[in-house]
Amino acid sequence: LLESAEWQVRSSAIQCLGRLRVKEAIAPLIERLKKDEGRLREEAMLALQRTTGFEYEDDARQWEQNSQAPH
What is the pTM of this model? Predict the structure, then answer.
């Protein structure tokens, strides 16, 4: 669903992952942060913040570097 051509489907998938708060979602959310723009990018950032407790804004490199840090 994260790779759907429809932005609405990707949006729903990102939001669901943010609600689940599972660490397995971190890497796919970082990928969306790299690929998406605008609203979807912000949703990916918020889902990552919710999942990890970190607040790295929308800097995908920072998320990648710190995604293995203890939560």
Answer: 0.88
Distances (CA, A) of 37 to 10, 22, 58: 12, 23, 10
pLDDT reported for residue 71: 47
Instruction: Return the structure tokens found at 48.
Output: 């990552």
Residue with tokens 């969306």: 32
Q: Report the amino acid identity of residue 27.
A: A
Counting as low any pLDDT under 70, the low residues of the chain are 68-71
**From CA 3, how far away is CA 50, in angstroms rounded?**
21
DSSP code string of 21-42: T-GGGHHHHHHHHHH--HHHHH
- How far is 5 from 22, CA to CA, in rounded Å? 24
Cα separation of 52 and 10, whole Å? 20
